[in-house]
Each structure stands twice: as structure tokens, then as C-alpha cells.
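Batch manifest, entry 17 of 40.
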Amino acid sequence: MKLLGIGSRIDHPTYGKGVVTNVSLTDYWVTFIDSGLETLPLNEEFTVIESAENEVDTVSFYDVEQSLLAILRKWNGLGEPVAIGDKWKGGNMTLTPGQPGLSSKDIPIDVFFHKIVMMRDRLRVMEQKINASNLEETEKIDLQQYITRIYGSLTTFNVLFKSQSDYFVGEKSK
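Output type: C-alpha cells
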């Protein structure tokens, strides 16, 4: 029995026409026009419409998806997922105005935390772009010092992070 390769087109008596999207040791993964993704044993009966060669270094959809996500994170300036401290999950942050008669504002901590992490990731991207730029070294150092001071200002929010490796770090005292 010759194995079909990814991209082979088949016609199945129950599922109709489909395309082989992955091949494992025991099954074909076939995406059918009418019934979506189904796994079929390699010895299943169906009609081959068009056979594609079975290449040795085929990859699964999952592998392609993971590679694509990694590329998007790299070029979008998105970092790895960052965990919020367990004690803050599901919590709220209340902002109470100092003036009487004004109402308080509740913000879910998870939403606030997400904005902080996005800001941190964008600062890192800016830092990388500064380092890769054609600016004079003195200008790069000057801009780096501003970024370091920004990180220092944001250390207040370190209490929200689960892992110390995700903390903001500013200038060390001398």
C-alpha cells in the first residue's frame, strides 16, 4: 500500500471530497468540504482523485501554527505570555477620587495588568530599535538612560507579576 502525501485529494463514500492535511503512522487527517476535519485509518476505503507524493519532511498544521505564532510575536513586538500573581487573579482595582461627590471607578486587575505588560513589551521593542539604529553612540546611551528611568518608574507594578524574572528593573542605586 502506497501512502498518500499531504495535499492528496480523495473522495470518501461517507464524507465526500476532501484533502489530506496530515499523515501520521496510523491515520490520514483529511479536511472534507462538507464535514470538516476527520481522521481516517490508513487502510480506509476511498477513491483517490489526485495523489501527492509523500514527502519525508512533512509538518503538521500544529507545527505550522506554532511557527506562525512565533513569527508574529517576534515581528509584532509581542513577548512571551506573562503570568499575573495568583493572589491578583479575578481581583478589582478601585480608584477613589479625592474630591467628595465623585464616584469611584473599578477596573479588573487582569485588564490593568495586561496594559502594563503591553507597555513593557513595547518599551523592549523600542530599546531594540534604538540599539539597531544608525544613531550616534552618545545618542543611543542617552535614550537608553531614559528607558531605564521609565523602567524604574514602573517598578511599583512589580507586585502584580507572578515571576520576578518579569519585573521592571530601573537604575541600581550606586
